[in-house]
């Protein structure tokens, strides 16, 4: 049996995750930590990511490590299901992926978020993402004027 | 296989703990920028920037027109008859009222628009080149679409021959009937792929002085499309190639799918992120008038295939589900049938001269050359016999008059 090196990550809320080193290396942030300090059996803190989000991120890293050879279609189906999540979860995931620096995961979530914007009005986007409209009435009128279509 | 142990230690933390407010408005700028980069429709970007001030400041606006200079291209290497091509761009849009709890009747409207250099928008029949000149009296002079859902279903690029050097009245002729696929590069750079009169592929790169004719041809090409970051071209046997725009030397052609043979004309169309091939079967019929006998191609049947990229072959599909395919004169696109009142999916709208009629009721929409094919029943007929399909195009739905910005 192959010997697998393990790494322990500690989430912001104190949970420990013992994972294969190869899984952890998909995070460039962790890669730098391991290269710089080479902590043997040490626990690497991940202070910006809570346990729920970290376990989801690690699920992604695991899948993308083991299944490097599965065919393209299965892979994209899995990715699609992975980001079929609540809006707050997408937020936690993208912040975690950004902090841990996992570019393919950032791309995946950005694709998902951009697809949620397609065709929607600004009002609807604010509703979906719970964003306050901080423009003044004058500004809004101005946008409308500039973006209106003059038909002939 | 080693089993990965993600050890979830017992944790008493409740779900509430995680519901710290997601602050989408304050997403880091680089992430906002990555998201905005994916909004390739001008309309989606415009809306993204209208959500809140931090999103607005994260991303610069894009000019509405893609050309910062006059879109005049040489014809050198392509045709020696005329002096230049004029390249125009049109957008095919699906407009609709936003979903509301009270109102769930589908109400989308399909339009094609072209903006001239002065910023005036022209409304064109989405499948043909007919410009609607007589808008209804209550049609808004300035159209406010900020409260509407806007889906950009496609874009089309059209090359028109220019006869004379400007200034002067350059004659624009649309004798050139092949479709044009467009790929944008960095900044103002772009590539075009179209079909030369010889049936070979012709490519143009912005800034070049002449067209490149690509010699690879087993059978004359029927159609071109820009799909998923690549140029695709299909010949009249269904053999499909990817045309790689390698920087520098000549473009490289690689096989994407083998021939399917079958029908008479092949057309490429994108539907829900998939590339489809529509194979059209013709019959010839003649129409005698006093002096001339016309031979006219009439569509009688269609088959639809999807691309299996791995096997490099086209696989026939039984049903398009809720999708409607539109095969227009200058572009092909698809839409969700259930967004349009009274339309069923698994159908194809197409243009064919054989449906042309002089009937007066066609004057308003000039949809007389459009036909509908129902894959379920195999039935085919002019758009005028499918009242609900016809209304997707003309007249504008009643809600349009309420979008006026006019005081």
From TrEMBL, chain A:
CDD domains: BTB_POZ_SKP1. Keywords: Ubl conjugation pathway. Residues 5-64 form the SKP1 component POZ domain. Residues 104-150 form the SKP1 component dimerisation domain. GO terms for biological process: jasmonic acid mediated signaling pathway; protein ubiquitination; ubiquitin-dependent protein catabolic process. Pfam families: Skp1 (PF01466), Skp1_POZ (PF03931). Coiled coil: none annotated. Pathway: Protein modification; protein ubiquitination. The keyword Transmembrane does not apply. InterPro entries: SKP1, SKP1-like, SKP1-like_dim_sf, SKP1/BTB/POZ_sf, Skp1_comp_dimer, Skp1_comp_POZ. Gene3D superfamilies: Potassium Channel Kv1.1, Chain A. Part of a SCF (SKP1-cullin-F-box) protein ligase complex. Involved in ubiquitination and subsequent proteasomal degradation of target proteins. Together with CUL1, RBX1 and a F-box protein, it forms a SCF E3 ubiquitin ligase complex. The functional specificity of this complex depends on the type of F-box protein. In the SCF complex, it serves as an adapter that links the F-box protein to CUL1. PANTHER family: SKP1. Belongs to the SKP1 family. This is SKP1-like protein. The lineage of its organism: Eukaryota, Viridiplantae, Streptophyta, Embryophyta, Tracheophyta.
UniProtKB/TrEMBL annotation, chain B:
InterPro entries: F-box-like_dom_sf, F-box_dom, KIB1-4_b-propeller, SCF_F-box_domain. Residues 27-68 form the F-box domain. This is F-box domain-containing protein. It comes from Vitis rotundifolia. The lineage of its organism: Eukaryota, Viridiplantae, Streptophyta, Embryophyta, Tracheophyta.
């Amino acid at each position: 049996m192959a010997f697998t090196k393990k790494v322990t990550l500690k989430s912001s809320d104190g949970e420990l995750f013992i994972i294969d080193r190869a899984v952890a290396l998909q995070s460039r942030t962790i890669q730098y930590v391991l290269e710089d300090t080479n902590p043997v059996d040490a626990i690497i803190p991940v202070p910006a990511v809570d346990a729920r989000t970290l376990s989801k991120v690690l699920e992604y890293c695991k899948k993308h490590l083991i299944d490097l050879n599965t065919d393209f279609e299965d892979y994209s189906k899995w990715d699609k299901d992975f980001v079929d999540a609540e809006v707050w979860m997408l937020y936690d995931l993208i912040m975690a992926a950004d902090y841990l620096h996992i570019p393919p995961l950032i791309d995946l979530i950005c694709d998902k978020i951009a697809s949620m914007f397609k065709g929607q009005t600004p009002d609807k986007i604010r509703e979906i993402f719970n964003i306050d409209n901080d423009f003044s009435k004058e500004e809004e009128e101005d946008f409308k004027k500039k973006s209106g279509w003059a038909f002939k | 296989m080693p089993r990965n142990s993600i050890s979830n230690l017992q944790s008493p933390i409740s779900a509430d703990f995680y519901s710290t407010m997601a602050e989408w408005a304050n997403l880091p700028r680089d992430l906002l920028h990555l998201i905005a980069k994916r909004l390739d429709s001008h309309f989606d970007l415009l809306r993204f920037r209208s959500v809140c001030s931090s999103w607005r400041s994260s991303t610069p606006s894009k000019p509405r027109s893609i050309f910062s200079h006059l879109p005049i291209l040489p014809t050198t290497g392509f045709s020696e008859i005329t002096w230049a091509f004029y390249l125009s761009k049109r957008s095919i849009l699906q407009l609709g009222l936003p979903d509301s709890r009270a109102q769930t009747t589908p109400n989308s409207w399909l339009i094609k628009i072209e903006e001239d250099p002065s910023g005036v928008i022209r409304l064109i029949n989405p499948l043909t080149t007919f410009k609607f000149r007589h808008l209804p009296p209550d049609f808004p002079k300035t159209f406010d679409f900020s409260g509407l859902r806007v889906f950009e279903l496609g874009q089309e690029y059209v090359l028109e021959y220019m006869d004379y050097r400007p200034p002067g009245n350059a004659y624009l002729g649309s004798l050139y009937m092949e479709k044009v696929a467009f790929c944008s590069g960095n900044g103002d750079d772009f590539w075009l792929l179209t079909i030369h009169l010889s049936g070979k592929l012709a490519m143009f790169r912005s800034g070049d002085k002449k067209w490149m004719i690509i010699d690879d041809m087993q059978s004359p090409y029927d159609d071109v499309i820009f799909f998923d970051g690549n140029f695709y071209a299909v010949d009249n046997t269904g053999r499909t190639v990817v045309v790689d725009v390698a920087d520098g030397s000549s473009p490289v052609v690689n096989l994407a799918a083998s021939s399917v043979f079958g029908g008479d004309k092949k057309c490429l169309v994108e539907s829900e992120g998939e590339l489809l091939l529509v194979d059209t079967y013709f019959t010839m019929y003649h129409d005698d008038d006093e002096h001339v006998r016309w031979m006219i191609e009439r569509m009688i049947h269609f088959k639809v295939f999807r691309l299996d990229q791995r096997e490099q072959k086209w696989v026939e599909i039984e049903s398009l589900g809720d999708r409607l395919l539109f095969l227009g004169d200058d572009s092909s696109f698809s839409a969700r049938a259930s967004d349009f009142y009274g339309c069923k999916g698994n159908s194809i709208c197409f243009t064919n001269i054989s449906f042309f009629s002089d009937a007066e009721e066609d004057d308003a929409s000039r949809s007389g050359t459009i036909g509908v094919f129902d894959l379920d029943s195999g039935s085919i007929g002019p758009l005028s016999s499918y009242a609900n399909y016809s209304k997707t195009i003309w007249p504008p739905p009643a809600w349009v008059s309420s979008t006026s910005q006019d005081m």
